[in-house]
Write a structure and sequence with these properties.
heterodimer, A: 424 residues, alpha+beta, nine-stranded antiparallel β-sheet, four-stranded antiparallel β-sheet, globular, B: 161 residues, six-stranded mixed β-sheet, 6 strands, 44% strand
Chain lengths: 424, 161
């Protein structure tokens, strides 16, 4: 029976906000809760900030966010990666406003304090007024702990958090599988679409593990595919599943035959990739490599949702940045093959443009329903938001509970982690 | 080309671009498709590039993608397009960049206001048209729309620029 929630007395108690099978409306609407989340979640665990291919050379940097906090991700001369808050230690001005590039140092535009690629304070104009005991080594930029796995760089303000690989746990196997879409080449980012949606960040967190919406929201995308591709994306009747991987992570397998892209290379090449296959053969690639590359170009058959801000979604990285309780920025980062055949990477780019981003055949429809959620929760605050689909039929999976591909097992995994972190 | 010819050409391309703007605001997309040469490209880049096919764009539409996109707008199954945002656009600051045989390259500024959900958003872009002069008037050969902040955070669009 669907119970109403007494939101007047709910305060901000995680126990009352998150039940296993439902969450309360203030989860999407409470500014106070949003502020707590910044501290207890985004400052407290591993947050994805960049991919190593985005900072390929010594001195390469890019701007990113950890929660709302602006950071610089930079590679120093010894190839070490640093993540530091983009804020001068003197009077707090950002030291960099260029999205990405290459540099030998960062200099604050206000009073000229200069920092090295590792964030250390190197020099400041006229230092004599600070006295003899001013210690430059104590005034470097605020640095975060950094670790990476398979090229995915994560950072955290929490010095005592568990190692990244322990946090990823059972998700690592799926990251390994995801990176097989390099087709034997290293995975490389190829650009990104960025758009802002007036919604709470958790609406987006849920969406990457929500197959239930796909045939409804993406009907117009499905109709733009050829028959064979449309069949591939009609996966709700298939053998797919969604599994809780622990620590809020989950995997949603939509197209089981595309889980391991190095298996079944003998499989028939889909019609929509025939032209690419022939072009690769014409360029002299041997047949087994043609098949490996073509399978890689189609992307992986699953979405891996990593708590709290990044997903490996079929053929791209999806990153969320919480901006306000009702505003979230989304980045869809295209990936391809570093050093791989140009024609294959071009096909990946066109596939990405087809679905993703502000002009895609998919993202605008997602954005519309996400915004409608935020408009809907202005009414009926006592009504619960249901994440109960499939809860009765879950079975034990390899890592945690497993449900049908359209079940809300992944959302329950994320909200269980949310609750754990908010109660710590 | 003498001055009078130049002014005449500027007036002709301006008329064409204003006509295109009017049918896009009216969402008369079948009429818009008819303005195109079949091999034409409609591109909304993210960053400047020598070869837009080699980089990620917001859209890179050949004839098939243009038709698929219009079908998506018209079929009523796309929740972002049913109903779509209402738009009003103006195009101005026309400059003819090049004339070569039947081909004219013209640049201009575009301002577009969209209205949906009781909120309005404003977009600005530099647009470069490559037009081919035919017996029945100009046809679009290439249209490149450089949105302001194209490499930054945008919103989703349920219309064309």
């Amino acid at each position: 029976m669907n119970q109403l929630i007494d939101v007047k007395n709910i305060a901000l108690d995680p126990d009352q906000l998150v039940h296993n099978d439902k969450i309360a409306t203030p989860m999407y609407t409470s500014s106070e809760l949003f502020e707590q989340e910044q501290e207890k979640i985004f400052r407290n665990t591993w947050v994805w900030v960049a991919h190593t291919s985005e900072i390929p050379d010594k001195g390469s940097f890019k701007l990113s966010k950890v929660g709302r906090e602006p950071v610089i991700v930079v590679r120093d001369r010894k190839d070490n990666i640093h993540v530091m808050v983009n804020r001068c230690r003197h009077r707090a001005a950002t030291v960099c406003e260029v999205h990405k590039g290459k540099t030998s140092s960062f200099q604050c535009p206000y009073h000229g304090w200069g920092y090295g690629l590792d964030g250390s304070l190197r020099a400041l104009p006229n230092p004599e007024q600070y006295g003899d005991d001013f210690d430059k080594s104590q005034h470097g930029m605020l640095k975060l702990r950094v670790e990476s796995y398979q090229g995915m760089i994560f950072a955290t303000f929490n010095e005592s958090v568990e190692p990244l690989e322990d946090f990823l746990g059972a998700a690592k196997k799926w990251i390994d599988l995801f990176m097989k879409q390099g087709g034997g080449y290293p995975v490389k980012t190829l650009g990104e679409h960025q758009f802002s949606v007036p919604m709470n960040w958790k609406v987006q967190l849920e969406n990457t593990t929500d197959a239930y919406h796909f045939p409804i929201v993406h009907k117009s995308f499905l109709q733009s595919l050829d028959e064979e591709a449309e069949k591939t994306f009609t996966f709700l009747d298939g053998e797919g599943f969604v599994e809780d991987l622990g620590n809020g992570h989950s995997v949603m397998v939509m197209i089981p035959e595309l889980v391991d892209l190095e298996e079944d290379l003998e499989r028939k090449i889909p019609e929509r990739f025939e032209e690419l296959a022939q072009a690769l053969r014409d360029e002299g690639y041997p047949e087994d490599q043609v098949r490996r590359i073509v399978r890689a170009v189609g992307g992986s058959g699953f979405n891996l949702n990593l708590f709290p801000n990044v997903a490996c979604s079929m053929a791209f990285f999806r990153v969320l940045t919480p901006v306000a309780v009702d505003k979230t920025d989304i980045r869809h980062i295209a990936i391809g093959m570093e050093g791989g055949p140009d024609i294959a990477n071009r096909v990946r780019l066109r596939l990405h443009e087809h679905f993703q981003g502000p002009m895609g055949f998919g993202s605008p429809d997602d954005a519309e329903v996400w915004e409608r959620i935020q408009r809907g929760v202005d009414g009926g605050a006592e009504l619960p938001i249901l994440v109960n689909r499939g809860i009765e039929k879950e079975v034990p999976g390899e890592a945690g509970p497993r449900g049908h591909v359209s079940d809300e097992t992944g959302m329950r995994a994320a909200y269980a982690m949310w609750k754990r972190m908010m109660q710590e | 080309m003498n001055t009078i010819d130049n002014e005449s050409l500027l007036w002709q391309v301006t008329q064409f671009i204003w006509h295109e703007a009017a049918i896009l605001d009216a969402k008369e997309y079948d009429a818009w498709l008819d303005l195109w040469q079949p091999e034409g490209l409609y591109i909304i880049p993210i960053e400047d590039a020598d070869d837009y096919a080699a980089v990620l764009n917001l859209c890179y539409d050949d004839d098939k993608m243009r038709r698929d996109r219009i079908k998506r707008f018209q079929d009523g199954f796309s929740i972002s397009s049913a109903p779509p945002a209402v738009t009003v656009r103006t195009l101005s600051r026309f400059v003819i960049d090049a004339v070569d045989g039947n081909t004219v390259v013209v640049s201009c500024a575009e301002h577009l206001v969209e209205d949906k959900f009781g909120r309005q958003r404003i977009w600005a872009a530099n647009v470069r048209y490559t037009l081919t002069s035919t017996d029945t008037g100009f046809r679009l050969q290439e249209k490149v729309v450089r949105l302001l902040n194209s490499d930054g955070v945008l919103n989703s669009f349920s219309y064309l620029f």
